[in-house]
Amino acid sequence: MDQDVSASKKRDGRTASVSGIHSLKDHYLGQLDLVPNLKKLLGTATLVDDCVKSASDYSYSADKYAGDRFRIIGDASAFIDPLFSSGVHLALLGGLTAASTIAASMRGHCSEQEAAEYHHIKVGAAYTRFFLVVMSAYQQIRSQSVDILSDVDEDNFDRAFDIIRPVIQGTADVGQNLTKSDLSKTLEFCQVSPAVWAPVDPEMQAEVSNRFGAELVNPAAPIFKPEELDAIIGSDDEDALNVIKRINARKVVDPIFRGTSSLETEVVKGFVTRLERGNLGLIQVSQQEE
Question: Which InterPro entries match (predicted)?
């Protein structure tokens, strides 16, 4: 709803009220009357809590994206930025994980608690990844003549990735445990923006692989620490460093662009998504491997 229209309706509500009080809950329920089809879908559902909240900033997130017999998706779960068109992508991803975890719970693939936790973690990880990309872009835009994101030999590299690794691997609670400030500080060390676009071509990558071994350029390998690179590559080997910087950076952001394949390969609490027509749900990794 347009902000001015919403404010006007709230004023009208206070004016019409005998007590002069028109709470946010009153406003919410009044607007709900304007969408009868949605009310029909809600059926006999009732508000669990009398407290209704609203977000005034462009960016926000819920404390939890799932719980006992409910899932939150789309803008109801979180919103990052109005300029990067992230809403549709993240809403569809959230819708798919919601559907698969609901089906998994109903079909006995796992417990409802496990299904809800899977959805919560997957949605949180997806928004965190996109947040990293958006933040890197904004920081670079605001200071175009400077590489905002630090180099691979940043002293705090280890601390930064200790913070972010559980998030990008989808194994951490990204609700209250990781704040916007934490992410902003982490991003300063993740060298996402300049490294992703480092001047690297397939020939350079092949040459580095031949010289230092295929494991160094393997996208599935862990993120390399500064001391590990120092022991393998000289600081004056610019081509090799650019190759590894780019691969390291893409380990952070690439899952955004893998589409549904990341749901079938990224393990969360021992489960991956089963994207099988007629048998949508979750599957334990051990069962998948068999």
Answer: FAD/NAD-bd_sf, Flavin-dep_Halogenase_NPB
Q: Is 123 in the same domain as 195?
A: no
State percent of the chain over pLDDT 90.
20
Kindly report, residue by residue over 256-269, the tens digit of the pLDDT.
556 677 788 888 99
Report the number of secondary-structure helices (H) and strands (E) in the chain. Answer: 13, 6
**To which H or E segment does residue 201 belong?**
none
Helix-helix angle 157-168:180-187, to 10 degrees: 120
Q: Which residues of the chain have pLDDT under 50?
A: 144-178, 180, 182-193, 196-197, 290
Is residue 12 domain-resident? yes
Residues 113 and 185 occupy one common structural domain: no
Residue 287: alpha-carbon gap to chain centroid: 27
Question: Which residue in 163, 241, 257, 171 sits closest to 208, CA to CA?
Answer: 241
The SS3 call for residue 190 is coil
Q: Where are the alpha helices (DSSP H) in 36-85?
A: 36-42
SS3 string of 233-258?
A: CCCCCHHHHHHHHHHHHHHHHHHHHC
Sign of torsion over alpha carbons 276, 279, 282, 286: negative
Is 111 within a domain?
Answer: yes
245 and 170 both lie in a single domain: yes
Does 265 map to a domain? no
In this structure, the answer to whether residues 184 and 46 fall within a common structural domain is no
Q: What is the pTM of this model?
A: 0.60
Q: How far apart are CA 60 and CA 261, in angstroms?
A: 27
Q: How many domains in the chain?
A: 3
- Which strand (E) or helix (H) includes residue 188? none
- 164 and 245 both lie in a single domain: yes
